[in-house]
Amino acid sequence: MMSKSAGKWRWVKWVFIVPILLFLAVQLYFLLQIWWWVDHNPGMTSFMREQQSALREKNPNANITQLWVPYNRISNNLKRAIIASEDANFSDHDGVDWEALQKAYEKNNKKHKVVSGGSTITQQLAKNLFLSGSRSYVRKGQELIITFMLETLMDKERIFEIYLNVVEFGNGTFGAEAAARHYYGVSAANLSAPQAAKLAVLLPNPRYFDKHRDSNYLARRTGVILRRMGSADLP
């Protein structure tokens, strides 16, 4: 007959120890993946798989579009535009812009729901590689852990190179090369400053702006980013 102490230990094991071990196993998986990607390019990301599945609900043969190009074959115009639009302090921070995160937290408290993330480029990459588009503080916590893994194992240029190649720019369109061809019929290397600025402005809501390319907001915001691009520091 099982003693009370043995039964209590089994209860403690299943309630506390097993979940902790599972959590650590997941983190190890993320860490090993990131270590591999230091000098190997990722294939399908979590966001790509999610979007391809959504497209295939309407068309079983649908595929996302993505073409990998190295960092030096992506226009500096696009690099500067994205930093100016998404993360002005990218070259300097440790992966998290704590001031932006605090502002997002205060905004979410006022709205009583998660409406803003305050994410840096590294945080966005962490989410795109492994997580979903859902918003919650649990997912945000996991995003932060992955962010610090990326910043520890990779330099800024490699983080930015992967980001530029996997970020979503439109309905089924991922990465700078596919976006440049989709919107302008040119390569990512040949994007002009106005073209790059407009692509950068798409990023917060790319599927919506893919269908509303002539919106007044898009035009105004593109002008703002064009003016900021000159002060953007590249890694």
From TrEMBL:
Pfam families: Transgly. This is Biosynthetic peptidoglycan transglycosylase. Pathway: Cell wall biogenesis; peptidoglycan biosynthesis. InterPro entries: Glyco_trans_51, Lysozyme-like_dom_sf, PBP_transglycosylase, Pep_trsgly. It catalyses: [GlcNAc-(1->4)-Mur2Ac(oyl-L-Ala-gamma-D-Glu-L-Lys-D-Ala-D-Ala)](n)-di-trans,octa-cis-undecaprenyl diphosphate + beta-D-GlcNAc-(1->4)-Mur2Ac(oyl-L-Ala-gamma-D-Glu-L-Lys-D-Ala-D-Ala)-di-trans,octa-cis-undecaprenyl diphosphate = [GlcNAc-(1->4)-Mur2Ac(oyl-L-Ala-gamma-D-Glu-L-Lys-D-Ala-D-Ala)](n+1)-di-trans,octa-cis-undecaprenyl diphosphate + di-trans,octa-cis-undecaprenyl diphosphate + H(+). The lineage of its organism: Bacteria, Pseudomonadati, Pseudomonadota, Betaproteobacteria, Burkholderiales. Its EC number is 2.4.99.28. Belongs to the glycosyltransferase 51 family. It is a single-pass membrane protein. Gene3D superfamilies: Biosynthetic peptidoglycan transglycosylase-like. It is found in: Cell inner membrane. Peptidoglycan polymerase that catalyzes glycan chain elongation from lipid-linked precursors. GO terms for biological process: cell wall organization; peptidoglycan biosynthetic process; regulation of cell shape. Keywords: Cell inner membrane, Cell membrane, Cell shape, Cell wall biogenesis/degradation, Glycosyltransferase, Membrane, Peptidoglycan synthesis, Transferase, Transmembrane, Transmembrane helix. It is an enzyme of class 2 (transferase). It comes from Duganella aquatilis. GO terms for cellular component: peptidoglycan-based cell wall; plasma membrane. The chain crosses the membrane at residues 12-38. The keyword Protein biosynthesis does not apply. Residues 63-229 form the Glycosyl transferase family domain. It comes from the Bacteria. One of its GO terms (molecular function) is peptidoglycan glycosyltransferase activity.
